Please model this.
Amino acid sequence: MKIIQQIMIISLLSTMSCRDSEFEDDTSDIFIGETDIETPDWTEKTHSKDATPDYNVVFPDNEVLRIDITIEEENWNAMQDDLETNLGSSRGGGSITLDFTPVWVPCKLEFEDTEWYKVGIRYKGNSSLQNAYQSNTDKYPFKLDFDEFEDTYPAIDNQRFYGFKQLNLGSNFNDDSFMREKVAADVFRSFGVPAAHVAFCAVYLDRGNGSEYLGMYSLVEEVDDTVPDSQFTDGDGNLYKPDGTAASFASGTYNDAEMDKKTNEDEADYSDVIALYDVLRSDIRTTDSEQWQEELESVFNVDSYLKYLAANNVMQNWDTYGTMTHNYFLYNDEGRLVWIPWDNNESLQDGKMGGGVSLSMDEVSSNWPIIRYIMDVEKYKDQYKTNLQAFVDDAFEPTKIQTLFTTHEALISEYAEEETYAFGNAVSELKSYVEERKTVVSSFLD
Model:
């Protein structure tokens, strides 16, 4: 019965997921205006493709960025009409199946008295987009692409934002602390797990009625834009964002289309993810464990995965592998796939949607073979337990993380309290949560 329920959940979630690569953009209703534009603020450092991505400017730890976005009224209306067309029946609270890519429109983006021209902007997300639409709020999650409209506006050919082509504006859905996305990503990297950079960002929007404070956002690095080059030895490998039933790697689920290849798309070569799938299915897993481990480690970075697993299970995130068939990337670094966590706004909490997987992971079945089969190996289980202790002793040491929460609280309170009175309580709950998780880990390891 448990296996049947998990299969049903996987099937349901695969219908809910939004896979951008499957759908065509429709820009027929957007307002273009003059295509011969001037770009007086353009410099090599700020706008050029030749600029090295400047992480100090775009992803600082000690300041709140301010981004001002201006969208022509006609284009704002086109964005709303697009949502109404695709999600109209769910306004006010109905079921939604996200089977479309929201329309791109051009906007003006300003940062530190500098303008970026005709930047592509569209809505993004799944549950965060659903919630914003159903609750009739304007605080939607956005995706930015700085040269999306370069064919229409030749003057912005290869436009970048301090070296970055795409960025994400996460709305901090369901997070009154506004910190989960950033803290989780920073802690992952601190523990040696590759993850996107995140910054605090106050967003102001003018959609025809003057500039208005839209809210405190998380500015999130686009993994397929800059993470391979900045965090791996070889930046030219295949990058996948599995989404749907195949993302479970369960028996009989493999499907190229659901691997969602983000790099080297013109090369229809999925041999690396197929190799992982095949190793997981191999008969020698139960007949010759040592040989199976060698074959697994030749195609999958198990050491890195065990560090991710320890960190994720301590912080907890129900909205990822083990309960959900999405929210991770796989990157082929010098022949081995490496796990990259993604979308951490639901992390650092327990209880929601039944919570994440337990520290023991005893309840995880073969429907999630990457976890189950690895944890069935005593050597890997011991390594995982060592990682748990190391994580709470250093990267997630309670005093260190509580100090970080206090620092972030002082930094963003001016903006956060403008959105919600629950900010202070949410931060206090995070501080208590860190202590609780250290206790849970200690009890598990005793």
